[in-house]
Amino acid sequence: MKKPIIAAIALILGAMAAFTAARWVNISRHTGPKVVIVAQPIELGKAITTEQIKTVNWPGADIPQGAVSKATEVVGRIARVSMMPGEPVLPGKLAPKGATGGLASIISDGKRAITVKVNEVIAVAGFALPGSFVDILVSGKDANRQPFSRTVLSRVKVLAVAQETTAEPDKPKVVNAVTLELTPHESEKLDLARSIGALSLVLRNELDTGEVNSAGVRLSDLMYSQSTRATSSSTAAHASASRQYRGPEEIRGTSRHSGATP
């Protein structure tokens, strides 16, 4: 008799605990601070509509910094980045008030947009998409008419390919123009670089924030590999060793004999 009674008590206590937890979660869900989140996918450069957002009670008091609490503060604003359902709408994701949309609305403060011509190979075969980061190489000839290739800009953000500012990773496209986001000084460097040679885009990991500081490559670096140089150095060292001092020499007529005279 005791075991069934203990089991019944345990079941009752478990049910009460589950009911209390569910009630607490339900209360928290309806009493947390108001936060505007994304309800439908939002494309960058487009105005946000009422259907694309909704206001919910954020569970707990720890809400994202700068989170918007009123839908009226978001509707009609231009999205600076793409947003997916469930994420909170933050000020950094919105263009300034009064922005009219398009490419100009998604350019970061202090940056500029510049378009360069590319081809299928140079544009990483269509995988340089809006939002990607690339390094920019220039190949040409120096003052001595010698071929060279060098990285002139690193970790440059792609704003648009052709006239499209939205990315479709599963549908790479071959385009003939890419728009990049640069500082004014970087824009000047790129403008000069494309006047002296062909430009290439090198796709990089978006989490890689390292700067490229390369001396570049010249024709001699391709013609003479490291192994060739090592072989040449070894041959030169052997020849030098063979010319080293081998003791006194004795000259008899037209003959030369190495070593001391016995």
From TrEMBL:
Comp. bias intervals (Low complexity) = 228-244
Q: List the signal peptide residues.
A: 1-17
Describe the location of the SAF domain by residue ranges.
33-95
Q: Say yes or no: keyword Cell membrane present.
A: no
Location of the region described as Disordered in the Swiss-Prot/TrEMBL record: 228-262
Pfam families hit by this protein: RcpC, SAF
Keyword vocabulary terms for this entry: Signal
| Entry protein name | Flp pilus assembly protein CpaB
